[in-house]
Amino acid sequence: MRVTVVGSGYVGLVAGACFADLGHDVILVDNDQQKLAALTAGQVPIHETFLPELLERHRGKTLHFSDDLQAAVRQSAAIFIAVGTPPTDQGEADLSYVESVARNISGGINGYKVVVEKSTVPVYTSNWIRKIMLRNAAPSDSFDVASNPEFLREGTAVVDFMYPDRIVVGADNERCASLLHEIYAPLTDGSYYQRNDAIPRPDHASIPPPLIVTSTKSAELIKHASNAFLAMKISFINAVASICESVGADIHQVRHGVGTDSRIGPRFLNPSIGYGGSCFPKDLMAFRAVARECGYEFRLLDEVMRINEDQRQRFLRKVRNALWTLRGKRLGVLGLAFKGGTDDVRESPAILLVQALLQEGCSIAAYDPAATDRAKEIFGTTIDFAADPYEAANAADALLILTEWSEFSSLDLDRLHSRLKYPIVIDGRNLYDPETMAARSFSYYSIGRPLVAPVQAAA
Length: 459
Ligand code: UGA
Prior knowledge:
Blueprint: E1 2-6, H1 10-21, E2 25-29, H2 33-40, H3 51-58, E3 63-66, H4 69-75, E4 78-81, H5 96-106, E5 113-117, H6 125-135, E6 143-147, H7 157-162, E7 167-170, H8 174-188, H9 191-194, E8 211-214, H10 216-247, H11 251-259, H12 280-293, H13 299-323, E9 330-334, H14 349-359, E10 363-367, H15 372-379, E11 384-385, H16 389-393, E12 398-401, H17 413-419, E13 424-427, H18 434-439, E14 443-445, H19 455-458
Helix pairs in contact: 1-3, 5-6, 10-12, 10-13, 12-13
The structure holds uridine-5'-diphosphate-glucuronic acid (UGA).
Uridine-5'-diphosphate-glucuronic acid binds next to α10 and α12.
């Protein structure tokens, strides 16, 4: 099937490449000429596992890039809208890009089309898209608007797309639903997974995935409710971690005991310096605003956001507790991305913490395996960028672990120890076992677990 994807950001680019890998003919439309030129020339603008392989496989064959939306619409049966929905000052989602795309699509309608929301949008957006298209002279029987929210995580987006827990299709009639069913058929009938060149199956995936058909409004709510629930899980475990710190309990033991209840489940219960990224912070505010608009005060979400911010303040207090005064202190920082496996620094708690520490007069040497270039756009020369974790630790008063990159969990501890001025590690992601750190002569601070001091110092 010929499909158009509008917007070549994280969602659009991954969806476009994955649709091509499912066997569809894809036109990826963007109005950013530089981006289009880079994609056509074979560049991969984001750090995403398997994306370079898929782009390489399909570029110029079944994956084309264009700035002509109406021409793409004329050739396509389905048009996926994956443009940005940034937050306004009031925390609502700014839907002006979605509106302008909808207006533009109207001019290309030349037969039945399904217009699909893939961006995260508030409930009622599909109604608005329909209204805007009708106002712009799209005949009412020539299109339907569907909602097909994406549940992919940055860093594992391609795998999440190909091995989803579920595919949600919000469609208000059978014709529209069956077109989307056809697009996802290689996943739902399992044929994609038989292929030798299929993206490898992750451990937890059960195949084939179910396709859940709902109303468009329900699908829009499913996306916001899912992200809000996941953020709530993180804030919940972080709140419990704070209590663990007060009473001397261990959050990992508590998490294990809680997460093995199959009604709760173990995932998304990692204590941390808080969630960040381009989705949770924005989506929680947007969901809060939508609820208010509909007459419901969703105060639980306020508390989820408050705990998340508090988590950073608590971490700053840990740094002060470890080092006393901060002015003039040299800190090594591991991780600037908002989570491991991505180069994205948007709403990164690591970036916010580094900014706070700079304000307190610290000097920083930071290392991130992928996010350095993006962080340089924020920090310029106000911090030093190290070439590896050991260089970041060099002569530092303490080492801070701020992002859960897997490579940070297997560092050469003796080498690290010899580089640091004082063997102090303050770990915002709980990547190490406190006993091991004590045995290797570190003072080790983490989240929701007792502080451990070097074994020989304690003795
Ligand atoms: C999130 C959702 O997980 C996706 O399902 C959704 O599709 C996506 O938003 C979106 O709306 O587009 P993402 O923002 O890429 O995906 O990242 P997550 O893996 O969810 O992590 C979000 C933040 O929570 C990160 O800062 C991470 O470090 C933090 N986190 C995650 C924790 O602090 N603890 C955990 O247990 C899990």
